[in-house]
């Protein structure tokens, strides 16, 4: 699904400040950093099932247990349980990012297990992300109009930031509409199917992104996931409408999904600096436009789970699994040191990043 609005950048005409001028200068690649990233992480590319499975299953157990408590407990306890459910299911859902990068067969059964426990129940099957997120990592696409996961938010109007976050709250409504209504209708209406595939089958933030129809084995996987998720969404609506599922339970479920989507959108807001206005960038420029929030920050694992706190590092070594990114970061910091190009992508926490982005949107550009 495309969850963003058609934001527009501000005019670049008129006098520009020094920061803007610097942004437009081409940035040469730091070859020493790129070489170190490749050499120091060669032994870290294996996804370890002994970490993936317990992590995901623990999140599922805590998340659904807390969700049930939120549906049934008195108000005060229900709120606390809801917060726990949001954090646990957000982490469980974040494994969709790992699924796009680990090779097929690397973790036997994990993809199926994740879909049965997380992707289908939360209505976020991985086909919405697989084949989309990899375009964001394509060297020639990052930060351009062809990047499904990029908007020059730092160059937009100040109101674009709160709208960017608030629109995510509508995610459960969009998901139900996508899978309970549009999917079955599009199966018998070919023109609608083309629209659904192009515009409502990607977890992207670029409103101009249009997805190509799937082919081959990926098409088979897509259809299996879509059919299963549609069946779940239709059953959920039907059972609620007939009173089998209490209305409160249904609304709590949608509220938790909405909160998960908002939290993820806030994380997305600070995953990059969003300072590129469509030009192709070197790998180093892409890295510096991305964000690491390494320790000692204690809250980052909550709002940027499953390795997402090392988002800039991930852009250097996208095939390194989440559980090895901390090791990779420490190795690179030891080898390259403070003040290096590598170090410049590290930030202390969420509030400062949000403030920086907000200030950037308010800078006068003529």
TrEMBL record:
Record-linked CDD domains: Membrane-FADS-like (cd01060)
Superkingdom in the source lineage: Bacteria
InterPro entries in the record: FA_desaturase_dom
Keyword Membrane attributed: yes
Transmembrane segments: 50-71, 77-97, 109-129, 159-185, 220-239, 245-263
Ranges of residues in domain Fatty acid desaturase: 76-341
Swiss-Prot/TrEMBL keywords: Membrane, Transmembrane, Transmembrane helix
Pfam families the UniProt entry points to: FA_desaturase
Record bears the keyword Plastid: no
The protein's name in its UniProt record: Fatty acid desaturase family protein
